[in-house]
Amino acid sequence: MPKVTEEHKKKRRREILDVAKKVFIKQGFQATTMSDIVSASNMSRGGVYSYFSTTDEMYKAIIAENDQSFEAYFQNLMQMKSYWNALLIYLDDLERSAYDDVREGFGIVAYEYLVMTWREKERIQFFKDRVDQYIKLFAGLIESGVKREEFHPVQSSEAIALMIINTNDAVYLLSMTVGADKARVKDQVKSLKIYLRYVLQVKHIE
Amino acid sequence: MPKVTEEHKKKRRREILDVAKKVFIKQGFQATTMSDIVSASNMSRGGVYSYFSTTDEMYKAIIAENDQSFEAYFQNLMQMKSYWNALLIYLDDLERSAYDDVREGFGIVAYEYLVMTWREKERIQFFKDRVDQYIKLFAGLIESGVKREEFHPVQSSEAIALMIINTNDAVYLLSMTVGADKARVKDQVKSLKIYLRYVLQVKHIE
DNA sequence: ATATTAAATGACAACAGTGTCGTTTTTTAT
DNA sequence: ATAAAAAACGACACTGTTGTCATTTAATAT
């Protein structure tokens, strides 16, 4: 084909990213070759290469989309009347997804990428930015709660935010590798709740 | 050379493992080829192959040694009069090593391996066993504390143990990728202390 | 000293994955 | 219809890695 609409190109790009995401999740980032994605797509080698010339580019595109949709989900949480309730719902969702669909999610791919590539200096900024972005979200929620006098934290919002993120990560990682039961997801979420209720000094609970 | 003592073979094996460990830490597990290790060693390709035929075997050997030395360290902790103090020392060590030598440690390689290989069914048992092993250590410490009426936990020892392990992991992982400061190691350790003091209901503190 | 044994060597064939590029195909404009 | 443009194709040369094996070398036994 030839001189084609922008729309068509966007669609092609989408198709490739969808295929790539599936393949990444199924067999891991590093184990995925360009050839794998070419085979899984219904395009030719050259065709795929004209959109993305490395799996790394694909990863970056997918993770950006993922982060964006997490932000949307998070904005939704922020609409709630009670920020504590928002946190509880977040924790519920975490628990549920650890049981239900961790293994179908892109999360593990993100870990794999992180753990595999942190040695390359030029990527460190990328990771730092992502950490900041996520800290900002949760710290923002906490500070909003403080303004409304729902929370009276005994630690900095950032420290608490990071604890949430870290526990989230740990729960996901372990669930994926040894299963949600063995990872004691329920217990871990409960532990985080215990910690949060204490450090946030939550008023008007539940 | 030829028909050589067991001792000599052990030494050779050691040499190879030492080299492999260095290379793994420097460039990551997956990025390390047999050829890399051959070059880094002062043996020939065939020589190395006669001891280990994959990097996977090397990894398994190294991680076993690592786990063993962690157990030794832990047994040491268990000798202390106060189990709470033992935990505090453990947390101190965690904090210190996150600042000082995370990047020289084998920990990140272990993550990489975990995250890269969990899809292979036959490895899941390996991971499960390791998790159990570590839970057992910490849960054991907690239970000893209970027997001595130092602790009066409000959660199961295993759940608490896992929270320690998870935080440990998260702190290491983040420290390595974005640095100990950005990972707010001090804060995270403090958070864990807060959590522990509450769930363990520690008596005779410090 | 010499023979025996096996440890160690390194060249090599086989394989997997990459990136390119001349060719084909299809769309749009005329 | 036809021409022009570029999207898509896929064969291919290239590179890096692996595992092997005939050969060399050195330790031990006699």
TrEMBL record, chains A, B:
It comes from the Bacteria. PROSITE patterns: HTH_TETR_2. Coiled coil: none annotated. Pfam families: TetR_C_17, TetR_N. InterPro entries: Homeodomain-like_sf, HTH_TetR, Tet_transcr_reg_TetR-rel_C_sf, YfiR_C. Residues 10-70 form the HTH tetR-type domain. Keywords: DNA-binding, Transcription, Transcription regulation. Residues 33-52 bind DNA. This is TetR family transcriptional regulator.
